[in-house]
Amino acid sequence: MSTRIPSTDPILDNIQANILKGHGRDFAHHLFFQFKTNTSAKAKDWIGSFAWTTAKKQLLGTELFKAGKITDGGPVFTLSLSSTGYDKLGLASSKPFGGSFANGMKASAGLLGDDISIWDEGFKDSVDMMILVADDDSKKVKALADDIVAQVTVFARLLVNQRGNVLKMKGGSGIEHFGYADGISQPLFLEEDVANQPSTVEWNDETDTARLLVADFESDPNCFGSFLVFRKLEQNVKAFKDAEGDNPPIPTVLPVVQDVDGKPNSELAGAMLVGRFENGTPTVKSSIELNPNPFSVTNDFDYRDDLPALKCPFHSHIRLMNPRNGDTDAGDVSEQRITRRGMPYDDVKRIPEDRITTISDDLLDGSQPEKGVGLLFMCYQNNIELQFEIIQGFWANLGQIKTHIIGAEDSLIGQGANPPKTLPKQWGQPAQSSSFSFHGFVKNRGGEYFFTPSICFLRKLRTDQNLAQ
């Protein structure tokens, strides 16, 4: 298996969709099930016979859509199993190795800073299986999800049906509920995606598949799966915007940071905590929001010109999550990189469905929920303990990247004590502001660790079941 996967590679027929490349659909239902007792035979037969979407089929649909040969890439279906799911199906001996996966997310609550008492009821239970159903038509995807629930009910009980949908500004850029650009930088594994990067002078998103894939079928070297982390992260939009100073007369808790010319910029402090302005302009490149914001600025950057972190603080969200070789004290942290595949959720209908791809600032400002909206965080990786748990448990929650204690924690997703922090008084200058507190706007409402098996493994379930009959 090569680092760059060509479109002709046979592994594409054996890897489920959404792993090597995001599914790209506007809507998705994430169905969480618990297996019923004494139904493993029925479950394995159904799982092994269902037409799960392969990476090859997903990429072919994308290619035909871009060529104008089809108007819809069609639905995407994927299946993932938790450790208890493997056990209940009688597949404990086939379970991929991983201590955190084997124990489940609840066992890592202390490390992750999770309060399980506030989780949604369905996630408090034992989740055995997750099925993702995605499509560009909200009515179609709901009907498909409902049909799967009806089929599965003979061997499993539905715990949670969590809907998600994209959020895009009028210009087409994806955002999250706080209004900041999201999903800009992602690991790239496919030969075509690596080659099509617009600019790679300072940063290249090409990533070794060893960070993502796990061999899953001993008799076939082309079969791979990946560990999946799912977390429902609720965002308190009003509290966040109040603290940013976006809701006068409520005063901001943030200092006013001066731009490169010494002019006060009311947006700069919030941008430095995120690492980007709302439109995606990285603060390491500019002290003002750039319009237009070219890709050579948006993603082709690292921190070699900001080693003391005076333009983009060490504790900024994007610098903590992906240090980009800009933390010389920590050294090489590329092995921790995860592959994000999440999407926003909106349980309270903050954004009308017909506006989710044409969102305006006025629409965001007009509705600021305190609950019921957030991010369905999903990430794939080769090793949960060495990737996600280090990023969340140490980098975000403790502000510690290897031996480098950066002196502050992630203001967005940090779930540690999150003591007060400072920002430069002026962009690029060493003098620091007074300390301030800015945290507690995101809470985990539930989740689980899964493994998304290879297509080979899933098909074999039916074969084995038929042989047993």
From TrEMBL:
Residues 311-393 form the Dyp-type peroxidase C-terminal domain. SUPFAM superfamilies: Dimeric alpha+beta barrel. PROSITE patterns: DYP_PEROXIDASE. InterPro entries: Dimeric_a/b-barrel, DyP_N, Dyp_perox_C, Dyp_peroxidase. The keyword Acyltransferase does not apply. GO terms for cellular component: cytosol. Residues 14-153 form the DyP dimeric alpha+beta barrel domain. It comes from the Bacteria. Pfam families: DyP_N (PF21105), Dyp_perox_C (PF20628). Its cofactor is heme b. One of its GO terms (molecular function) is metal ion binding. Keywords: Heme, Iron, Metal-binding, Oxidoreductase, Peroxidase, Signal. PANTHER family: DEFERROCHELATASE, DEFERROCHELATASE/PEROXIDASE. Belongs to the DyP-type peroxidase family. This is Dyp-type peroxidase family.
